């Protein structure tokens, strides 16, 4: 658990971070979102002490971070940043091995770990011998995240890790992030300025502006009950319903049925979002879809009038 | 292997010119037909070459230590204040002619190897300092931040990340410094240092073009050998 208490950070006259309070539970992915210069990156760097705090407290599992040696603290936290920050003169394997080597792991253990991580991130084992400049943007960013997970730290700090990628690669990496997080359950602090990314990844989202946290809530609460006009505007007005609909899988609104379902009906995988279901209905000019499970067996039906209210069922 | 060929060839030519200069006597005699002596014999060319090279290697070693050291110091958090001063010195120093350093040094430390060594060190320092600053400055901030953020200590970041990433640029500075100094050292002969400039000066004083030619040839080949040696090293580092 990470607790920020009355945390401030002052640069000269201006307060980059202004008395914020934030609790991030163990295993939770917390997104810090806001416009550039709102203090979200500064907050992240206060946690691993890349920037010294001016006042307040940062506690990790009830221990003040100032009690640790800064290096020891950082070795215990994964750190992934925009543009990867991979060392260009080291191979992928050497890059991933950095923290484990600093921690004095045996060669064998490091090699095993590298293989595990490449597999986890769906990277070819041959990638290990390549240099960063030989990788595509998406591969390099995967390696960047893999490197931050190398020593299996309980906490992961990510500063716009997918910011420099094209839309398609970014979405692929977001999905991978969700898949990996669902098994690893790290405590993640994720900084982004992309609202859709925040809604997609965050268990809870802290909206920041001018060094302050305006609201810290679950994605659906932020959409349904914005605490201020700023949050309201930030999350858009026109397509808010669609944003909400993209938060829930169709399995939360469907009617389960064991009966054979007419195969002429358009189908949708059970883990697709309600938004996708709506899109399919509009596109295929239909009022109902057959929901399929992972083995492509029909498990239920979702009708037009059931689409609303997914967040209340979940 | 092909890369190592060029320095080897230059070295062979250098050795040939040093030890077999008498073979060129007909050619030199053809250039200066009225002279009795066309071969420089006041001192063996080998001894001149040795002293010349030692001076330059010594001066470059000191210049590299000081230049790289200063370049590192002024890019650390504690020395940042001196960065503008250091980079300005590095630029201004280049405009200062080595002859002037010699002229200023002689009254202070007398004739001989001393003033030449001093001039070469000062003159060779600046390309190294400048390239060290450029090289360290060229390391991407994201790379440094990632390193620090993941728990590298400052010395480890310098040794494992910053220096390896800037070593080619720094090496290029040493290459410039040493190659220029191989040629510049010849001026040392004007203040009594034994260098390959001796035959050149003697030739100029006596109007003997053959002497000038011998000295100039050796200095040129020596500089080319030095340059090709560094080029080989730079290529090797480019692959790694």
From TrEMBL, chain A:
It holds the Pfam family ABC_tran. One of its GO terms (molecular function) is ATP hydrolysis activity. The keyword ATP-binding applies. Residues 2-235 form the ABC transporter domain. Residues 254-314 form the CBS domain. GO terms for biological process: quaternary ammonium group transport. It comes from the Bacteria. Keywords: ATP-binding, CBS domain, Nucleotide-binding, Transport. PANTHER family: GLYCINE BETAINE UPTAKE SYSTEM ATP-BINDING PROTEIN YEHX (PTHR43117:SF5), OSMOPROTECTANT IMPORT ATP-BINDING PROTEIN OSMV (PTHR43117). Belongs to the ABC transporter superfamily. This is ABC transporter. It comes from Tamilnaduibacter salinus.
From TrEMBL, chain B:
InterPro entries: ABC_transp_perm/SBD (IPR051204), MetI-like (IPR000515), MetI-like_sf (IPR035906). One of its GO terms (biological process) is transmembrane transport. Residues 49-230 form the ABC transmembrane type-1 domain. The chain crosses the membrane at residues 44-74, 95-126, 211-230. It comes from the Bacteria. The keyword Transmembrane helix applies. Keywords: Membrane, Transmembrane, Transmembrane helix, Transport. The keyword Hydrolase does not apply. GO terms for cellular component: plasma membrane. It is a multi-pass membrane protein. Gene3D superfamilies: MetI-like (1.10.3720.10). It is found in: Cell membrane. Belongs to the binding-protein-dependent transport system permease family. PANTHER family: GLYCINE BETAINE UPTAKE SYSTEM PERMEASE PROTEIN YEHW (PTHR30177:SF32), GLYCINE BETAINE/L-PROLINE TRANSPORT SYSTEM PERMEASE PROTEIN PROW (PTHR30177). This is Osmoprotectant transport system permease protein. The lineage of its organism: Bacteria, Pseudomonadati, Pseudomonadota, Gammaproteobacteria, Pseudomonadales.
């Amino acid at each position: 658990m990470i607790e920020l208490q009355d945390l401030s950070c002052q640069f000269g006259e201006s307060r980059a971070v202004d008395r914020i309070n934030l609790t991030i539970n163990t295993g939770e992915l917390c997104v810090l979102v806001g416009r550039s210069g709102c203090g979200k990156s500064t907050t992240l760097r206060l946690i691993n002490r890349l920037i010294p705090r001016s006042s307040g407290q940062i506690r990790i599992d009830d221990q003040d971070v100032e009690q640790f040696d800064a290096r020891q603290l950082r070795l215990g936290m994964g750190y992934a940043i925009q543009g990867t920050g991979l060392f260009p003169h080291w191979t992928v394997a050497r890059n991933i091995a950095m923290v484990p080597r600093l921690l004095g792991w045996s060669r064998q253990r490091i090699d095993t770990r590298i293989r595990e991580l490449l597999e986890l991130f769906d990277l070819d084992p041959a990638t290990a011998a390549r240099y960063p400049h030989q990788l595509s943007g998406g591969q390099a960013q995967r390696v960047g995240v893999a490197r931050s997970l190398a020593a299996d730290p309980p906490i992961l700090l990510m500063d716009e890790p997918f910011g420099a990628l094209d839309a398609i690669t970014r979405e692929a990496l977001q999905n991978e992030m969700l898949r990996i997080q669902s098994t690893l359950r790290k405590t993640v602090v994720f900084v982004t300025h992309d609202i859709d990314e925040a809604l997609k990844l965050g268990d809870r989202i802290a909206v920041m502006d001018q060094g302050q946290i305006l609201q810290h809530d679950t994605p659906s609460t932020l959409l349904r009950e914005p605490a201020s006009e700023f949050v309201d505007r930030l999350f858009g007005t026109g397509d808010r319903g669609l944003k909400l609909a993209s938060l829930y899988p169709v399995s939360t609104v469907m009617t389960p049925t064991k009966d054979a379902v007419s195969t002429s009906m358009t189908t949708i995988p059970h883990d697709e979002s309600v938004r996708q279901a709506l899109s399919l209905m509009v596109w295929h000019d239909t009022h109902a879809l057959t929901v399929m499970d992972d083995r492509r067996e029909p498990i239920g039906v979702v009708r037009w009038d059931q689409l609303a209210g997914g967040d209340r069922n979940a | 292997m092909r890369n190592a060929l060029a320095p080897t060839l230059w070295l062979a030519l250098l050795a040939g010119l040093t030890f077999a200069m008498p073979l060129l006597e007909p050619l030199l005699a053809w250039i200066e037909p009225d002279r009795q002596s066309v071969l420089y014999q006041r001192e063996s060319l080998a001894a001149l070459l040795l002293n010349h090279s030692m001076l330059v290697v010594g001066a470059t070693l000191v210049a590299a230590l000081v230049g790289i050291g200063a370049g590192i110091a002024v890019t650390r958090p504690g020395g940042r204040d001196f960065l503008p001063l250091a980079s300005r010195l590095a630029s201004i120093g280049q405009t200062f002619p080595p002859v002037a350093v010699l002229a200023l040094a002689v009254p202070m430390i007398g004739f001989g190897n001393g003033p030449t060594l001093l001039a070469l060190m000062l003159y060779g320092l600046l390309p190294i300092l400048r390239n060290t600053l450029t090289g360290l400055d060229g390391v991407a901030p994201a790379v440094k931040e990632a390193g620090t953020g993941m728990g590298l200590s400052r010395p480890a970041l310098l040794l494992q990340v910053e220096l390896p990433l800037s070593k080619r640029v720094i090496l290029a500075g040493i290459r410039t410094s040493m190659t220029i100094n191989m040629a510049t050292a010849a001026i040392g002969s004007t203040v009594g240092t034994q260098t390959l400039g001796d035959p050149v000066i003697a030739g100029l004083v006596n109007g003997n073009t053959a002497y000038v030619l011998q000295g100039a040839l050796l200095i040129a080949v020596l500089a080319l050998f030095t340059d090709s040696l560094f080029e080989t090293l730079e290529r090797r580092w480019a692959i790694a």
